[in-house]
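Section 3.1: Structural characterization of target chains.
Under the original work plan, the team committed to producing a structural model for every single-chain target entering the pipeline before any wet-lab resources were allocated. The record below documents one such target. The sequence was received from the expression subgroup and is listed exactly as submitted; it comprises 165 residues.
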Amino acid sequence: MKSELVEQVYRQYGRELTHYLRAMCNSPEVAEDLMQETFCKALLSLPDSHTNVRAWMYTVARNLCMDHFRQTSRFAEGEVSEDQPDGFDMEETVFQDIRNQALANAISRLDKRKRELITLQYFSDLTVKEIAALTGLHPENVRVLICRAKKEIKSYLEEQGYDVP
């Protein structure tokens, strides 16, 4: 496989796959390891007949993540971290970090199925149909589980004193 193609796929999908893996693992270190393994396995095993590289990358990432969970028998308890951009307002950044951490905490309290669905929809920007194909669930089940997950997140954030519309 040509290195230009690998670089193009990484530029196009690397960031969103990293966010997905971080949300699923709650560990930047594990997510980075799984990300590297995802690219190695996905690009080496991509079937010639496969037309959706993005879906293939998510399938491989998800399978590696599930393998990791089976090996460790539980989700890793880690901190979610994000890089700060240069030239930011310190006060606003601190408040945004607090809100982001509260949201990350709310998401991490979901069961792993709901956490995955929320992550795929909101952080990976996949459609319900794409999520259903990836997870093997019926699209209506995906919709219902996402709705329940959002209610659980809202309830948790309200318990923490956040005003959620």
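Confidence is low (pLDDT under 50) at residues 74-88.
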